[in-house]
# Entry
Amino acid sequence: MADRIEEKYLIDYAEYARIAAKIRQLLVPDQNGKNGKYSICSLYFDDAYNTALYDKIDGNAVHIKFRVRTYDNDDRFIRLERKTKRGVITEKHSARITLEELDKIIKGENIDENAQCFGLASEMRAKAVKPKVAVRYDREAYVMPALGVRVTFDTNVESLCGDKQSLFQPQKSPIPAIPRGMVIMEIKYTDKCPSFIRKCCANSGMQMSVSKYALCRGETI
# Structure
């Protein structure tokens, strides 16, 4: 997958309403979900030293995170991902996995070498990473495929127990990770952010450097 640039901003609801109204006139809703809206839950992994967490907190140039991601609590579509960040540059590798493969990954067991996720799962096993926390939020996403641009708005960011059940049980009790009424806006692009997108999102709150994983592990913005 090609490198992408990600910018994150923490904005209030009034700012979200203003920006989203403009974005809807320029971009189209993501095909996933209904009108570009869906729920995401990610189970994050880390090693015994919390390397992924402290690489982020310490501001290291490169940090890597492993996660399993579901959408709308659907166990028929599960993705295993490795996300590598170099400043605002992001590289993502992913593979679709089954429930059986998910169980093996959580337990640190071997995966069939013919499985799509074999490479990622083997790397996780070698690094002895284990589930740490689940992160759940609602996303509203808009895209312009021709220019490789994506703008998302994430609300209700919550921390859940770092277990398999959190991926599929929306009723589990969460802990809010950001203040209610606040929104995380992300602008993603492959080369240069188009000027009309930049203009729409001007004066858009506080740019963030912390990840949702760090927030849900108890780190502040």
User: Anything to note?
Assistant: The chain has a mean pLDDT of 91.
